[in-house]
Design brief:
Oligomer: single chain
Number of helices: 18
Number of strands: 17
Distance between the termini: 61 Å
Strand content: 15-25%
Helix content: 40-55%
Radius of gyration: 23 Å
Length: 424
């Protein structure tokens, strides 16, 4: 009797450790690892999983909570150990090495025609590697200026719109005019400076990464790539119009000073509006402005949030059917509202809820057509280049510790040595 009981316990433990599969009754279980973290977003994801399970008794989806803080290392460990979830939530700039490494399924023949046609080609380009498609881009956010509306009105400053944005030169002049007496025109939160700098540099015509006829990528820090870094450096070190204390801070760290009236504007991702709504003092008057424009107009780089299917999943067809359900236009709107971001789907973007002036939704939605794949999107070795070369180089440049010539040398010389190891 004890032997039979022990065997039963072992079977139950093994079932609990399973990464998904087919039960004896024929029912399939798919593990969906979500990185949703804001309360509204988690609720929306869990609700959609519940709705799927209620109408698909033979294909059950198990919701698994992941974390953005450790997703890359966690997924790599799971892939190598054969324990990856069937459906994977990530960001497009994290997919290249997983795609080339054979860990993600090619979705080309798995996705519905509806889903393929609903998402614009420019968004699909963020998850295309080689001849395959390794994720569905579904949520995106532009970088915007969150401004103290009362401060700007009282200064007589021209308020920019998506139709008539500020230029980078005008933005710098305005922040200088707004500064003085311990107050600053802008607070740049640049603890993670690379993606912000590169993505905004597209508006000035910068591209930084250049792919040759042989397919190899090299870094060239040219005049257009320097517009945004020189603006930030000038504000922080010459004009004294950018707070020096926030250069090493994250976006959330700037909000108390913003609410206290120390900074007129803070460049942030669109989704930070939720924190502002939750944390702003009663009566605080704020508004969303488009980021400055240059030779490239309002163009910005973006790395959308993505949904992928593990190559080792035995139920790719069913996983793709769940993605099609999750990303129906109405459901995509629910996910976007929960994350305070923009959907990639053309139909979802038409939803009236995303065109309200309240909380700046209309301004952000007007920027959606200007979003393009982030410059580093398909560059193998980018994570190492970013962490070991670009992040410390930009941090030192923005703080005034090194000059533009040193920055260029490090991005190009040191950076190309790193990238070369991934392109042999």
């Amino acid at each position: 009797m004890r032997t039979r009981l022990l065997a039963l316990v072992l079977l139950l433990l093994l079932a609990g450790c399973s990464s998904g599969g087919t039960r004896d009754d024929g029912r399939i279980t798919l593990r969906f690892q979500s990185l949703a973290w804001q309360e509204e977003s988690v609720e929306a994801n869990r609700a959609l999983v519940k709705e799927w399970n209620a109408t698909h008794p033979d294909v059950r989806v198990e919701y698994v909570q992941g974390s953005w803080d450790s997703v890359h290392d966690q997924l790599l460990t799971a892939f190598e150990g054969g324990e990856a979830p069937d459906i994977i939530h990530d960001a497009s700039d994290d997919l290249a090495d997983f795609a080339y490494g054979g860990y993600l399924a090619d979705l080309t023949g798995l996705l519905s025609a509806r889903l393929k046609s609903d998402i614009p080609r420019r968004s699909w380009e963020t998850t295309a590697f080689g001849d395959g498609l390794y994720g569905v881009p579904f949520l995106q956010e532009p970088r915007v200026l969150i401004a103290n509306a009362k401060w700007l009105r009282q200064s007589g400053t021209r308020i920019p719109t998506p139709e008539k944005p500020w230029s980078w030169a005008e933005f710098r002049r305005i922040t200088e005019r707004l500064s003085g007496r311990g107050k600053y025109g802008v607070a740049w939160p640049l603890k993670e400076p690379v993606s912000a700098t590169l993505n905004l540099s597209l508006s000035a015509g910068g591209r930084l990464f250049h792919r040759g006829p042989d397919g190899k990528v090299t870094v060239r820090f040219e005049a257009a790539d320097q517009v945004v870094p020189r603006t930030v450096h000038g504000q922080a070190n010459t004009d004294r119009s950018a707070s020096p204390t926030t250069l090493g801070s994250g976006g959330s760290d700037t909000l108390p000073g913003f609410f206290a009236g120390r900074y007129a504007m803070v460049p942030l991702g669109f989704s930070y509006r939720q924190q502002i709504v939750q944390q702003a003092p009663k009566g605080f008057d704020w508004q969303v402005l488009p980021a400055p424009a240059g030779a490239g107009g309002l163009t910005q780089g973006v790395s959308p949030q993505t949904l992928s299917i593990a190559e080792d999943s035995p139920h790719k067809k069913e996983a793709a059917e769940f993605l099609d359900f999750l990303l129906r236009p109405a459901n995509m709107v629910r996910l976007a509202l929960g994350d305070w971001m923009l959907p990639t789907g053309s139909q979802a973007l038409k939803d009236p809820a995303l065109h309200r002036t309240k909380d700046g939704w209309a301004t952000g939605t007007a920027l959606a057509e200007h979003l393009r794949p982030a410059p580093a999107q398909s560059v193998r070795g980018y994570p190492e280049w970013k962490d070991k070369v670009a992040t410390p180089a930009f941090q030192e440049y923005y703080s005034g510790a090194i000059g533009l010539r040193e920055l260029r040398a490090r991005l190009e010389d040191d950076g190309n040595l790193v990238l070369a190891r991934y392109q042999r």
